[in-house]
Design goal:
The structure is a homodimer. Chain A has about 350 residues and is of the alpha/beta class. The first copy, chain A, has three domains: about 10-60, 434 Repressor (Amino-terminal Domain), CATH 1.10.260; about 65-165 and about 300-330, 3-Layer(aba) Sandwich (Rossmann fold); about 165-295, Response regulator (Rossmann fold, 3-Layer(aba) Sandwich). In chain A, about 45% of the residues lie in helices and about 15% in strands. Chain A has 13 helices and twelve strands. Chain A has helices spanning about 10-15, 20-25, 35-45, 55-60, 75-90, 105-115, 140, 165-180, 195-210, 230-240, 255-265, 285, 300-320; strands at about 65-70, 95-100, 120-125, 145-150, 160-165, 185-190, 220, 245-250, 275, 295, 330, 335. In chain A, strands 2-1-3-4-5-11 form a six-stranded parallel β-sheet, sandwiched between helices. In chain A, helix 9 (about 195-210) links the parallel strand 6 (about 185-190) and strand 7 (about 220). The longest helix of chain A is centred in the C-terminal third of the chain and has 21 residues, at about 300-320. The interface between A and B is medium-sized, with 34 and 34 residues.
């Protein structure tokens, strides 16, 4: 006696729905709700349903579309990383659906759901500042949809990741100011999330500790929006307090540019009286006078690496049913660019 | 006797293919080639084939996806316009597939084909610099897929458009230099395509003519890439020739920033000896010292207006079969921002 093979009807009976609905759900017809589709997929998996060849072809029909979720669109780093993602996706025949979380966890969840529903072949994400837990990404694991995180990544989530070593880079930046003779180094830091601004703060503290310089809370300011304006205002605060810094490590070039402008507004000479270093090496760092010393971050390369990792994973999954796939974690190199501000 | 109603079989016989292929083509199955799909659609239209309700639901099944084709991704204007497109698409429940022509006509055609094949609900495009004729967009008309052009638009193609008045804005910029007492105004212009750099050149000439200032070819330079470097090099050329300018109208802020840096490299004082005006009001204009006077261009608003026009058209088309739709042409206002460079 042959083993009974699960049919669409079996699934329909279990779910108390019609065979037509089950069939349509498996074929991703637009008139079936996402909830129904997911219930059907779940039950089909549970009952070891093996679709016929035609359904399989549809199921495996690649969309050649990759979903991208970034926290901001009009942003120097992300538009350059996106450029890297798109140029290399293009080369391998993929297009991207671009979405933004606008740094909101709620929107990130919504975008993910949409991309999942659109059957993208894979997802590239840089997490929203609000995102601490990433349980919402578990659904991708369940359905074997590859995901690569870049820049703002989650440490515990298992997937391929590409980023820079923020702590080490910040350590290098701070140590550079110490080596230049700065005794009181302020840090205008980013918000407590995402992880990378926390890591930069760690690097700052590590460099000071190693050089036996006490960490002074008066010299630490925390941005909310990480803008030129915040850099300007915090630097004016720092430079008008009793305990003035002689060096500032700014969490980004935007903040660093604001810091230079603030020093100039108070008649304080950069670099003679105050040395300033930024982070990311964006165009504005080369336009401000004095030019901003900064940490060069390979924006385009980060995007390129992320898309190449993702496509590799997508194409491996096509070849083998249960891939013994090892996630990659790539840390791209940064380097210090010395300019006039130090 | 009732009139014979065209069936899938009729179409298949005419095309010498199988009913299955015709059915799959009409349902946009991934295993049917684009060429076949288009042949089937064409024949179906010719034979007045009326699909049954289910097929109709599929055909009319909105993707809620809008295709976007921009000439550059990592570019201040486009990333801000894109931000406007995405935020307002989001509000109305649409997502975008982002593609870039990288200023190549060939790639623009390829992207259009892809988006057409993906059945996007509509397309927003800013033309590639290379694009002179836009015959490749005719297919959208044929299949009633709405398209909106923004920024780099084609004058003769009939569709809704949103842009600024480049000629008038350039006229305002040049007239401002004349009113400030400049006698020899140079123009560092953009390439001959797209239209908007040509229009800016027209505005420059118009202002000079109206003020009876002769147009001197020695004072006109033409960029290829429209970068800071080109602005720098052309300005050095202009300032080291016998016939030196006392004012420069730069086609973009990038070129204007290069012009300021070149003047400084030669010890020429801005604005005392040379007045410089840019175009677009990007962040770099506020960072360079002296700050760059410029024409403010509403980047985000341009994107927002384009997406709102497109969604309006998509939703009108849903309601009426043959819409008596009037294309809109919106010209958004620009204004001059006076800063230190003049």
């Amino acid at each position: 006696m042959t083993k009974h093979r699960t049919t669409l009807k079996d699934i329909a009976i279990k779910l108390g729905t019609s065979t037509t609905t089950v069939s349509k759900a498996l074929k991703d017809y637009p008139d079936i709700s996402l909830a129904t589709k997911m219930a059907v997929l779940k039950m089909a998996k549970k009952m070891n349903y093996e679709p016929d060849m035609r359904a399989l072809a549809l199921k495996n029909g690649k969309s050649n579309i990759i979903g991208v979720i970034i926290p901001e669109v009009a942003h120097h780093f992300f538009s350059n990383a996106l450029d890297g993602i798109m140029k290399h996706a293009e080369k391998k025949g993929y297009k991207i659906i671009l979405t933004s979380s606008y740094n909101s966890l709620k929107k990130e969840r919504k975008q993910l759901k949409f991309l999942f529903n659109k059957k993208v072949d894979g997802i590239i994400v840089s997490l929203a500042n609000e995102t601490k837990k990433v349980k919402h990404f578990d659904i991708l694991k369940k359905y074997e949809i590859p995901i690569v995180m870049f820049d703002k990544v989650n440490e515990s989530f298992e997937c391929s990741k590409v980023s820079i070593d923020d702590e080490k880079s910040a350590y290098v930046a701070t140590k550079f100011l110490l080596d230049k003779g700065c005794k009181k180094i302020a840090h205008i830091k980013g918000p407590r999330h995402p992880l990378n601004s926390v890591s930069r703060f760690e690097g700052y503290k590590k460099a000071l500790e190693e050089h036996n310089v006490e960490i002074n809370p008066e010299l630490i300011k925390e941005c909310k929006e990480v803008t030129i304006e915040e850099g300007y205002n915090f630097t004016r605060e720092l430079l008008t307090q009793v305990n003035k810094p002689d060096g500032i490590f700014a969490v980004t070039d935007q903040v660093g540019v604001g810091a230079i402008q603030a020093a100039q507004s108070l008649g304080i000479k950069v670099p003679e009286e105050l040395k300033i270093i930024g982070f990311s090496d964006s165009q504005i760092a080369t336009i401000i006078r004095p030019n901003l010393t900064t940490i060069h971050q390979p924006n385009f390369e980060i995007g390129k690496t992320a898309i190449n990792m993702l496509i590799k994973e997508i194409e491996l999954l096509e070849k083998v049913e249960t891939a013994d796939f090892e996630y990659e974690q790539q840390i791209l190199d940064t380097y210090l660019v010395e300019r006039e501000s130090t």
